[in-house]
């Protein structure tokens, strides 16, 4: 077994083991990828303040997210197509998250269905939905999530219109993958991945095929997807979907103070400061730059989390110090999944937890609830002086 000391180790293994189209799907942003890059590079601009001669015994990273106990303030973000990164990938990730004591959020565009994940886990997980036009499909989706005892819904609000990701177009990304001479040649070099995919029955979008009207097989999926997303989405529609669910709701994709205020008005239990991992509006500010301003405005009215750019426990610590109640990680756990399956997701969580715990201690804090901006050295005008 390779020695894993950081998330980058998992990423290197992941790149070797997974077909190019699925690696590129995870490791890419929209258009020029400026926002994708700055999501991570902006974390590097923030420094941690070292403190010494302080009692570091009995440390704790335990917290709560929307009332649920967590071993650290980290949740596995919803990521589509993870069942193509590793066979039955969503099941593997959900099991790893459950054992580690952090929430797992299943994407609507997952390969494994809600029912698949529920069958293989013992604790409630979260379910992510898009703002789709079809009310009948949305109601049935919510009913299936309720039947699976999902404890919260994550509504993605920044995907009314899909940002262009050049690599996905060039690779002909699909599930199952399109068989072209180039993709076949590449997949032939990924022997372990291929053998696992041959052994599983789950290769299509399990929450959609056979559930959405007119989508009885993968060939009819693309036309449904092209028409399903609602470009007319407004706050009334978001509130309608929240009422349709009737339980805890997390709104993911907030990057502006005014939108954060609106999210509070409609009653979101939590909001996620996110630019969709740099996969939507290229040229938008990084999530970490926008976090503090949004926390100052609405942090006393709802839980504010951060998504996009987290690659280490130090990143988690910086987000918490700037006021986030928690964070969502996406690519970090996908790297682990593609590299080593369920064990890889567990390893990613272990790496992040160890970095978070150790860095918190070296900053002079014993409890995650005591972490505040005092542990940071933030560049003047970090959020930017924009007009």
* Total strand segments: 12
N-to-C span? 52 Å
Shape: globular
Fraction of helical residues: 40-55%
- Main pleated-sheet profile: 8 strands, parallel
Strand order of the largest sheet: 4-11-10-9-8-7-6-5
Segments where pLDDT lies below 50 for 5+ residues?
none
Beta-strand residue percentage:
5-15%
Order of helices and strands: HHHEEEEHHEHEHEHHHHHEHEHEHEHE
Helical stretch count? 16
Radius of gyration, CA atoms, in whole angstroms: 20 Å
Which class best fits the helix and strand makeup?
alpha/beta
Mean pLDDT: 94
Secondary-structure map:
Blueprint: H1 7-17, H2 20-26, H3 34-44, E1 47-48, E2 63-65, E3 68-70, E4 74-76, H4 82-85, H5 89-100, E5 105-106, H6 114-119, E6 126-130, H7 135-147, E7 152-156, H8 166-171, H9 181-187, H10 191-199, H11 221-228, H12 235-245, E8 249-254, H13 257-265, E9 270-273, H14 287-298, E10 303-307, H15 313-321, E11 326-329, H16 331-362, E12 376-377
Parallel strand pairs: 4-11, 5-6, 6-7, 7-8, 8-9, 9-10, 10-11
Antiparallel strand pairs: 1-12, 2-3
Helix pairs in contact: 1-16, 5-16, 13-14, 15-16
């Amino acid at each position: 077994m390779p020695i894993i000391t950081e998330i980058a180790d998992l990423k290197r293994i992941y790149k070797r083991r997974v077909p190019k189209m699925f690696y590129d799907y995870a490791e890419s942003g929209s258009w020029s990828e400026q926002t994708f890059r700055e999501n991570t590079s902006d974390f590097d601009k923030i420094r941690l303040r070292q403190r010494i001669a302080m009692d570091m015994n009995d440390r704790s990273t335990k917290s709560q997210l929307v009332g649920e106990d967590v071993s650290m303030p980290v949740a596995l973000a919803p990521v589509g197509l993870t069942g193509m990164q590793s066979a039955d990938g969503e099941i593997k990730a959900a099991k790893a998250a459950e054992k580690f004591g952090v929430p797992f959020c299943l994407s609507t565009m997952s390969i494994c269905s809600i029912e698949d994940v529920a069958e293989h886990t013992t604790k409630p997980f979260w379910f992510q939905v898009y703002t789709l036009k079809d009310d009948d499909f949305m109601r049935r989706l919510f009913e299936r999530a309720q039947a699976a005892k999902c404890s919260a819904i994550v509504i993605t609000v920044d995907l009314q219109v899909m940002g262009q990701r050049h690599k996905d177009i060039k690779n002909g990304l699909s599930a199952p993958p399109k068989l072209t001479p180039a993709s076949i040649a590449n997949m032939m070099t990924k022997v372990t991945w291929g053998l696992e995919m041959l052994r599983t029955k789950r290769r299509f979008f399990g929450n959609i095929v056979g559930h959405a009207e007119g989508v009885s097989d993968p060939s009819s999926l693309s036309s449904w997807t092209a028409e399903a997303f609602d470009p007319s989405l407004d706050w009334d529609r978001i509130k309608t979907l929240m009422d349709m669910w009737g339980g805890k709701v997390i709104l993911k994709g907030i990057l502006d103070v005014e939108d954060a205020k609106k999210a509070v008005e409609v009653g979101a239990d939590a909001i996620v400061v996110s630019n969709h991992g740099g996969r939507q509006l290229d040229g938008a500010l990084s999530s970490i730059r926008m976090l503090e301003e949004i926390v100052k405005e609405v942090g006393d009215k709802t839980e504010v989390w951060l998504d996009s750019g987290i690659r280490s426990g130090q990143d988690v610590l910086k987000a918490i110090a700037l006021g986030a109640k928690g964070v969502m990680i996406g690519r970090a756990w996908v790297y682990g999944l593609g590299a080593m399956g369920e064990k890889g997701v567990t390893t990613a969580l272990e790496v992040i937890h160890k970095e978070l715990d150790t860095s918190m201690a070296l900053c002079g804090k014993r409890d995650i609830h005591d972490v505040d901006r005092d542990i940071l050295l933030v560049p003047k005008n970090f959020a930017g002086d924009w007009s």
